[in-house]
Amino acid sequence: MAGNQREMERRERRAQKDRRHKRILWIIIAVIVIILIIMKICEININSVKDRFTDEKGKFTLTQGVADDNFPYNLDASQNVSIVNINNKLGIITPSSYTVLNSKDADAEYVFEHGYSNPILETAGIYSLIYDQGDKNYRLDTVSSAVYEQETENTILCADVSKNGTVAVATTSSEKVCDITVYSKSLEKTFELSTSDGYIVSMALSDNGKRLAAAVLKGENADLKTTVYLYDVSNAGAKPKAAQLPHGSVIDMSFTSSNVLVVGDSYAGIVKKSGKYEEIYAENAISTRCISYTPAGDLILVYNSYSNSTDNVVSYIKSSGKVKSEIKVKGNIKSATASSSLVTVLTNSEIISFNLSNSEEKSRISADDSVKSICRMGSEIFIHKQSFIDRSGAETN
């Protein structure tokens, strides 16, 4: 009888212990969920949090998070500098060099002198493509190493890179007007085409490198016309779809799923997979100031309604071509940058951030004319000012 009593007591103690362990486990899970929700709301990148508590060997450390950083980071130039988010690192191109900067501590993880007279930078995923527009050289790199450098036979007009390292290059042609060549990241030629339709002024590759859009400018009856051709890279013999654009210069093209977003100096629209062009903003309805993209590929278009206006509109355009919202901003906007939920603009006197979902203002930082451009990553804003890059953690209202 006494033995049964002791056995029952042991079972009860074991059950109490199990219940206590489960309660502690559920508390831990609840805390983790709350932290993740807070990080999402505050735009904190979990990879950056992990980086702050790992040393250069990847080992966990509690002191790493308070280590001094190297911001502001000094540049070798003050003019013609571009800064971009490349795989959550800061890509910086100057007239003489290209640098991949660790956004945590301004450690230069990859640096080289490109030697190009007119360097143009395109990025996708971990890849960066730098080409010498008007000359014959271009190179493909990852965020940490060189992939290859190549010299073309003729002058480079424009180029683009996809997330899998596919590169498309448009050059002048020895026999026709323009040549298009597409290479895999191993320098295998996967597509080539010569055309006499006109000069290629802009190109875009899909994320997987299987589709190519090329904007071709030609003169017709004393008029300039631009046509976007959609090519199937895997089937060079297939007839491309074609869509004529409104009058004006093409500023940028970007694949979004199976469609192509097109931004001109006085219009914006979308070219469907079928080749049909649908306007977002009609010809001469806008004067484009600058553009940016969210990580999901949505377009941030800054424009004003007439060329001498000092007030700008920030238009948030979904990848489908639908205008989600418009934010009116007093003053001229010089630069724009976006994360998944915030858009930040640089005016002549301030850096202002807005919530993309409801257009609510989230922060406002003073800035003078020496600030040239900005780049947002999560909760932080990187600022190009004079000949250095600084970092500002944006305080939210």
Arithmetic mean of pLDDT = 88
Which band does the percent of strand residues land in? over 45%
Question: Outline, from the CA principal axes?
Answer: globular
The oligomerization state is single chain
- The largest sheet has its strands arranged as 1-32-31-30
DSSP summary: helix tally: 2
In the predicted model, the low-confidence regions spanning at least 5 consecutive residues are: 62-67
Helix residue percentage: 10-25%
Radius of gyration: 26 Å
Largest sheet: 4 strands, antiparallel
Number of strands: 32
Helix vs. strand class: mainly beta
- End-to-end gap: 69 Å
Q: Can you tell me about this structure?
A:
The chain has 397 residues and is mainly beta. Helix content is 12%, strand content 49%. It has helices at 2-41, 46-52, and strands at residues 73-74, 82-86, 89-93, 97-101, 108-113, 119-124, 127-132, 137-141, 146-151, 156-161, 167-172, 178-183, 189-195, 199-205, 211-220, 223-232, 241-244, 250-256, 259-264, 268-271, 277-281, 287-293, 299-304, 312-317, 323-329, 333-338, 342-347, 350-355, 361-366, 371-377, 380-385, 388-393. The strands form 8 sheets. It has a 4-stranded antiparallel beta sheet, with no helix packed on it. It has a 4-stranded antiparallel beta sheet with strand order 2-3-4-5, with no helix packed on it. It is globular and about 95 Å long. It starts with a helix and ends with a strand. The model is unreliable at 62-67 (pLDDT under 50).
